[in-house]
Amino acid sequence: MSVPDLASLHALGPSQQPDYPDRAAVDVAVARLRTLPPLVFAGECDELTEKLADVAHGKAFLLQGGDCAETFAGATADNVRNKLRVLLQMAVVLTYAASVPVVKVGRLAGQYAKPRSSNSETREGVTLPAYRGDAVNGFDFTEAARTPDPQRLIEAYHSSASTLNLVRAFVTGGYADLRQVHTWNTDFVSTSPAGRRYEQIANEIDRAMRFMSAIGADPDEFHRVDFHTCHEALVLEYEHALTRIDSRTGNPYDVSGHFVWIGERTHELDGAHVELLSHVHNPIGVKVGPASTADDLIALAGKLNPDNRAGRLTFISRMGAGRIADSLPPLVDKVTAAGIEVAWVCDPMHGNTFESSTGYKTRRFEDVISEVQGFFDVHRSLGTWPGGIHVELTGDDVTECVGGGEPVTEIDLNSRYESVCDPRLNRVQSLELAFLVAEMLRTA
Fold first, then answer.
1. pLDDT in tens, 283-311
2. Are 420 and 72 in contact (CB under 8 A)?
3. Of 21, 334, 397, 436, which sits with the fewest C-beta atoms within 10 Å of its C-beta?
4. What is the pLDDT of residues 322-360, one digit of tens each?
């Protein structure tokens, strides 16, 4: 299968693309990217597709989580370890408490570009290009930083490679060993209600592990975990340059990440992003907002997954807590009636953003929980499977979302607000979410 060239994709008028001042420099950067090794391998993508087929069939649950927007400065061992730790903690809670396999996919090693509602930003009478992620331009509000630079695509590749190296080392080098699960959260378990609940489960798992050891059982699954990566396939130059032909099958794969998704702002049926991803063999997702119709989704499924292969396509709903009960049922009902193989996943973050009284973009933890509960309620009423959650989170003790068991107030937001784009759940809020979702899964 061939892949359309960049010129034909740009002829479709793609939105949310950088306005590069020097096209010749873009060509140089793209040419360099085409020579670099793949970040992931086609076989790994196929393995994830198989796991997502189980999600689509109600046999597994998908946990996607990580930064809203990764930064080059954040690609450190400590940051990667902390994000991985909270995702593994959440997965253990979900697996043990709900007795369902959890497919773990990190929003990392590629989430360096962001769509924006405006092309520009104005401060004190000065207007500059909007920050579109470190893969495009810098966060500092200066003309030099905000001018899109194609060399940043090269840096995004190298930062992704470094992050992937760390992730692979952690998940295979003993850090994810289930026998060590009770040591992962000792630094906050004594002061956090969610942490104390986690300690109880960790102790139960520890006892179960000692029993397994006593009878001589020691499978590989106790010592390592399967972990994949995902990001929004936004900047066409980057994704196209990292689309390669698999030597085993002759099929194209986007080797920038295992799972790539198309955002709500770029999922036009005849658009460039849908066209490009319709040709690659990765598992792919589509963000679905309240403006989407069932006919839209059926048409997208026909374009992106014409063979109706389970595990290939995931619809990620982002409705908002106040809209999900009305907006989601007709979509799920009609898509299911059409016989479409798809995993349904809830993004409870993007529909619940507001500006606090102190001027920070934030989200209420209670709204996040409410949207997830609404997602489960819809699927329960229709007899379909609530396949997963897609969450912006961090492994650090930030103060970006308000509420939770250890409540962050609007006054607290300025103490550790570190996101360069959207607010993320902190470690404790993420773990609390996992417990609440596990309880929902028991009755799903």
1. 999 999 999 999 999 999 999 999 999 99
2. no
3. 21
4. 999 999 999 999 999 999 999 999 999 999 999 999 999
Give buried/exposed letters for 74-92 (b at 16+ CB in 10 A, else e): bbeeebbbbbbbbbbbbbb
Residue type, 258: H
Q: Which residues contact 312 (CB under 8 A, 6 or more apart)?
A: 49, 52, 283, 284, 304, 305, 341
Other C-beta atoms lying within 10 Å of the C-beta of residue 215: 7
Residue type, position 437, single letter: V
Task: Tell me the HSE value of 9 on the side-chain side, using a 13 A CA sphere.
Answer: 23
Q: How does 125-161 read in b/e, with b if 16+ C-beta sit within 10 Å?
A: eeebbbbbbbbbbbeeeeeeebbbbbebbbbbbebbb
Dist. CA 176–CA 199, nearest whole Å: 16
What span, in angstroms and rounded, lies between the C-alpha atoms of 390 and 296? 21
Q: What is the sign of the dihedral through the CA atoms of 77, 146, 416 and 397? A: negative
Asked if 234 and 115 touch (Cβ cutoff 8 Å), the reply is yes
Domain layout of the chain by residue ranges: 6-176+224-442
6-176+224-442 sits in which CATH class? Answer: alpha beta
Q: At what angle are helices 324-337 and 365-382 packed, to 10 degrees?
A: 30
